Amino acid sequence: MRLVEKRFMERLDDASKNWKSARKVYQTLTFKSLALILFYSNFVERLAYRTKIDKLMDILTFIQNFREAFGENAELPLVFWYSDEQKGETEKINGCFFKGIKTARDGGIISLNAENIGCGGGKFYTGFTEMPERVPTFVSLKEKYKQTPEMVIDFIQQIGVPRTEKKYLHFARIDKVESLEEIEGIVFLANPDMLSGLTTWAFYDNNAEDCVVSTFGSGCSTVVTQATLENRKGGKRTFLGFFDPSVRPYFEADKLSYTIPMSRFKEMYETMRQSCLFDTHAWGKIKERMNG
After folding, report:
1. Quick check: 115 and 92 in contact, CB under 8 A?
2. Which of 228, 217, 149 is nearest to 187 (CA)?
């Protein structure tokens, strides 16, 4: 809408309490201006509002289905995405940045970047920096996760960690976002019973042997790096993670991560109620145990 039509709308709003004044404003409108105003207010604004509601309904429908499948007390998954806008105040996190994930689990938003991620590997695997020179030696000789530094380098070259052009990486609980449009992946923090349901749901419409995979890597690489790469190529793999001993102290002893890239979640969203999670005797017994 052009500036003149916007100004007429403002004048109409100001004059709404005074019929005579409103009538004068109305009489000054050309037919073209009035048509544009009516089009904008009755179509464009409503369409934008309807789109926003539809996106919110998708999230609410999933949450309702999730609660019905896993129980009212099941922890909602987290989502992560990149943007140039800071969403949450996050102080510097020394060491593994998953130390700060409790904020997101409790309903807040954390916004990470190269300044507040204290771990060099964390900065690298989230795409904010190039690989620090010390990483191969540290992972091999200090952490003893690979036999040689060369094996670490080979692993990193194989996965091809993408650099981000965005300023922030955000984590939030799924009920705290209004849209899934920019989301890279959905992260479930699951015990064995929940993992049973989540992975069986993933297998429901996918016979590929790599439908559910567990890869070597840090907590941030198995969650953020792998899911982001998979999402951006429209892939179907989903990822078990948090086997890394360095990340495990920051989560409950019975929890692993299960990350679904957004490209795959869009498909699984449609099959959730068709899967074993609803109206089956076997899953009903597991659900009862989870909520007992």
Report:
1. yes
2. 228
Q: How far from chain centre, in Å, is Cα 16?
A: 43
Structure tokens that stand for 119 in this block: 């771990």
Report, in angstroms and rounded to the nearest whole number, the Rg of the chain calculated over CA atoms: 24
User: Six-digit token pair at 121?
Assistant: 């590997």
For 256, the 3-state DSSP assignment is strand
**41 band by pLDDT with thresholds 50, 70 and 90:** low
Cα separation of the two ends of the chain:
57
Alpha helices in the chain (DSSP H): 3-14, 19-28, 31-39, 45-70, 102-105, 120-125, 135-137, 149-159, 192-203, 219-220, 226-232, 262-271, 281-290
Beta bridge partners of 257: 189, 241
- Look at residues 47, 109, 40 and name the one whose alpha carbon lies nearest to residue 80: 109
Q: What tokens does 34 get?
A: 């009035």
The tokens for 163 are: 């650099």
Beta-sheet pairing, 168-173 with 238-241? unpaired
pLDDT per residue over 212-249, tens digit each?
A: 999 999 999 999 999 999 999 999 999 999 999 999 99
pLDDT band at 55 (very low <50, low <70, confident <90, very high): low
**Concatenated DSSP letters for 119-168?**
-HHHHHHTTSSPPPTTHHHIIIIIS-SSSSHHHHHHHHHHHTPPPP-SSE
Token pair 């890394």 in the structure block, residue: 244
Q: How far apart are CA 53 and CA 179, in angstroms?
A: 9
User: Which tokens sit at 216?
Assistant: 């070597």
Which residues on neighbouring strands pair with residue 109, listed in sequence order?
172
